[in-house]
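Supplementary Text 2. Reproducibility record for the structural model of the 527-residue chain.

All settings were left at their defaults, and a single model was retained for analysis rather than an ensemble. We include the record here because the model underlies the residue-level annotations in Supplementary Table 4.
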Amino acid sequence: FNHQFTGIGEIVNGTFAEAVEYPAANSGPFSMIVSDIDGDTIPDLAIEHLYGNSVGMYRSIGIVDTIKNYHFSYEADYGAGFFPYTIHRIDVNNDGDLDVITVPYYSPFFSIFTNRSTMGTIGFEPRIDIALNPVGTKFSIAEDLDNDGKCDIAICVQESSATYIFRNTSTPSNVSFQFIGSIPSSPTATGILSTDLDGDGKPELIFSDNSSNYIAIKKNISSPGNILFGSDIAVNISEKSSSVNNIDADSDGRIDLMVTSDENRSFMILKNISVSGNITFDLPTHFQLSGFPITSAVNDIDGDGKPDILISTTDSTGIDIFENYSAANILFTKALQMPLINMALGLASADMNGDEAPEVMITDLHQNTFSLFQNFGGRVTTVNTNTGWNLVSLPRVPIDRTPQEVFRNSVPGSIAGFTGSLYFIPDSMRTGNGYWAYYYLGSTETIAGVSINTFSLIVPTGNRWILLGSISNPTSINNIIVTPISALAPGSLFGFNGLQYTVPTVLEPGKGYWMYVYQPCTITVTQ
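Retained model, structure tokens:
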């Protein structure tokens, strides 16, 4: 076995713990941002409540290894217009504090919440509304468009076939935005992104579109104090698009585009081959999803230095996680699907507990909750198995304990437990139990999940053999406590090395062992 505590460069069953669910303070939790709002170095949450017409501030008050002990303090709920849909965190007035911007669908304004928090207390000034007369379906970005050191706002309104540009003219003591005009955009645009595509330091605007086989790019030709865009650059992707995100997939220093498509239930990567002044892409590389894409996030989940992709979907009601293997060529492999009860309409990824492994957070509009999945990062155990039969057990508790998902290289249907008189095929593997598993060829299994530091196994009957499991670290057989002690048959503990039974002195993680008991008892294993 090999016990590791750094990024393993692999996303496996058990990379994430089961979701820890938190109640939302208002109805319809939707879009979210993750940011240290109060300056205590711990990430907080701001969540738009779509039906409650508000934005709620949730302060993190626990930073511990186990997310189950992680808590959020609901601080305040601020009115945010009718149907707040998109949310941004930026330092609007360059005072060093991150402010919050919300853009509601059906109100003739967008809103600025100026941060006045102090360490341990989240607080904002009264909402400042900036007039935006068109109402309807809106997508927005917050970006310094003219390189003057201040974040500007661009809001795409489907019904107006236009994107409205607001230049940030704020000072540390005064928040203000100047409407400088609109630029044409598609009435069926489904998303807007801003990122520098050609390396000239100026962020372009990129639009996805669900009625066109093209994405539209507007080249940024601004100068400080003068926001200006050139005509559309149309990039043929041969299918309609539902959203667009940025990612340096191949780590070449250029920002590539990740585009999702409802049409084919897929996403594609457009490899950026632009040079300054000339925006061009390779042909798209396509990847299939489990259902219709809803929203996406990009982060290095496995610690290998490459950004991975997370996409929530509809039909599968889950999150597809694609592991990045790109080098000269773009390559992603679906590594995991995180099951959900309902669709995740809000999705974010950030390190919440300071271990440098980014967690995943979702909002559930229907259950009125938000949830957090802890990333165990390098908390994995590798278990070496032999050709033929093996005695195995859970070395950690993964999110999916289905036998074939834990010991993936074993022969399907070969993992069997023992009742004391009969073998059985388990639906789910249990902590503390041992199992037989058959392999056509010896293998190394990588299992991630919650550490097992101790367990107690209740044996209801005596005069029987039991299959005993192990914990996450090697432990002496002296740490096996049988209560009452008279239940244990002396010298009855055996392991199996693939050829013959052995007498162990140490219980190894991921291995199983035979033991005989004379009477009902409780068996406890500790470190």
